[in-house]
Amino acid sequence: MRLMSGGQIDTVMQEDRLFPPSAEFSGASVIGSMAVYEALYAEAKANPEKFWGDLAREELHWFKPFTKTLSWKSPNAEWFADGTTNVSYNCLDAHLSTHRRNKAAILWEGEPGDTRTLTYQQLHHEVCKFANVLKSLGLEKGDVATIYMPMVPELAIAMLACARIGVVHSVVFGGFSAEAIADRNNDARAKLVITADGGWRRGKLLTLKATVDEALAKSPTVKHCVVYERAGNKPAMTAGRDLWWHEQMAQVNANCPAPELESETSLFILYTSGSTGKPKGIRHTAAGYNLYVKKTFQWVFDYRDNDIYWCTADCGWITGHSYIVYGPLSAGATSLMYEGAPNWPAEDRFWEIIEKYRVNILYTAPTAIRAFIKWGDHHVDKHDLSSLRLLGSVGEGINPEAWMWYYNKIGGGRCPIVDTWWQTETGGIMMSPLPGAIATKPGSCTKPLPGIIPTILDENCQPVPQGQGGMLCMSHPWPGMLRGIWGDDERYRLQYWSRVPGQYLTGDNARQDKDGYYWIMGRIDDVINVSGHRLSTIEVESALVSHPLVAEAAAVGRPDDLKGQAVAVFVTLKGGEATEALRAELKAHVRKEIGALAVPDEIRFTNTLPKTRSGKIMRRLLRDIAAGKETLQDTSTLEDYTVLAKIRSDEE
Ligand code: PRX
Description:
Layout: E1 2-3, E2 17-18, H1 23-27, H2 34-46, H3 48-59, E3 70-73, E4 76-79, E5 84-85, H4 87-96, E6 104-109, E7 115-119, H5 120-136, E8 144-148, H6 153-165, E9 168-171, H7 178-188, E10 192-196, E11 199-201, E12 204-206, H8 208-216, E13 224-228, E14 242-244, H9 245-250, E15 261-262, E16 266-272, E17 280-285, H10 286-301, E18 308-311, H11 318-330, E19 334-338, H12 349-357, E20 361-364, H13 366-375, H14 377-381, E21 390-394, H15 400-410, E22 417-420, E23 454-457, E24 469-474, E25 484-485, H16 489-497, E26 504-512, E27 518-523, E28 527-530, E29 533-536, H17 537-545, E30 550-560, E31 564-573, H18 580-593, E32 602-605, H19 619-626, H20 638-648
The structure holds adenosine-5'-monophosphate-propyl ester.
Residues 272, 318-319, 394-397, 419-424, 445, 506-508, 520, 523, 529, 534 line the site of adenosine-5'-monophosphate-propyl ester.
GO molecular function: acetate-CoA ligase activity; AMP binding; ATP binding; metal ion binding
Cofactor: Mg(2+)
EC number: 6.2.1.1
């Protein structure tokens, strides 16, 4: 093993370079050495219930203390079940009697450059009022509200107001289509949609309310739509159904004491892609999730009371839920929230924001880092980034080149990088360096957090020898784990707990190196990772075959320098001409069915799809073709590949 303090790009593919934290960094960290980490890990492993029980008593406010930490009847976990708490209380009220009362909870910067600051006291005030608005509309504990908003503070306010009174929020990312919103409304039986008139993205106005109107035409369970005025674009308002946020807020007071809610009260659902065409509503509950995101936020980001912390994710994804809203706020942090694109008005917007707010901790995604590299160092060089102390990465593996650039160019060679591996389902970070303790290796998420016990198993569910790849599973429940798929217990069991009896199947492959470091090797299913976002190939295929001219479609991921993976599709037609116009039409169709994030990067028309003897599409062959590993000059000759396909069919 070699120790290095500065990276050299020509050696990036060497996996064993090790970057230990500086003595200065470790010295100021709570978990400041390998010995402290190992002791904590051993303690959690030896007696997980005591470990989590003690933490829960210390970290959360209990109206009624719990007496039982965990009830585990695989695959159903209940944490702290007989206690009562309130997530919104833990995020807000708990700070009001401390020195944090007047501390900035949210620092917000709009894309056009407008700014707002909300202290804990102010945020509490707004959340209490909006919770009263929800009550005035008849929403009660257990009801579902869909939130489809730009990245404005009101998005966090809406989430926390729901949490306060036990309304289950389902945040739908602003890039999803009307169809996708309607599907989610119907699956969750949402009673309310909270949206905005519009939002700003790369200088363009996104007309969110108009999209919601289209969705509501197909969402019979939704009774009301509350509209926050962000853009002033004066959308149509349907009398009796649509209500302005500011008008509703003017009619309520701010008196809304946090009610006692049972630990296992549903907190939110978040839809994510699985290996089938239908997104699943991942369900998280109050206390366990709250504890897990608070502790992991403190451990991984080594948060210190004066730090300015910036997570660049959107609240439409789990990263925004856990590490913009619930984790940082329950830890009493200052969380910066930015509305817009990284390249608006120019490619240095992130660096400008870091300089302006003196950001100490930056948490972003590899796809963004690759874009920054492409845009050029001169954008970075214009700004003073010396406030940065710690860097984070999430969403997909970070390739060593990007890691080195992030480390040297953004971190000035002094900031540890926490490469955090986790999932919508896990609620919070599962594997990551603890920055004051664990030396990092470019491309590895290093070690599991305390209380997390990963296993790597072969096809027969046996542990693989160290160094070999296999299915990444978790052998023990943890407080932040999903509690189910909304309305589909059987799918929950089948998807996560049946392949390896008694263990949680992550869906990722991984291997452990000789130092016990973990390396994520990609998915074992038909899920692809486009710009850090999960997409099911089957979802894209279903969208395509719903077009009247498409007979069959096969979607595969292919490597892409910026996005990580891009979507390539092979399409056979029932009629019509294989023209550029049809290609554009099919792209528009997928945009309408799912949203911009699913639009294929490449559409190839073909007369036939290569299939195995049993009729399964040979995805591996198509992946190779899409990646250019199998040369195919003219797509019409894909037929020739069916011969090859037949020969190789046993491999699939
Ligand atoms: O394949 C892994 C990849 O993203 C998947 C989870 O996606 P999602 O639920 O959308 O959550 C993304 C944000 C937590 C994982 O199964 N993934 C996420 N983080 C990493 C990663 N792959 C490698 N390294 C990571 N740090």
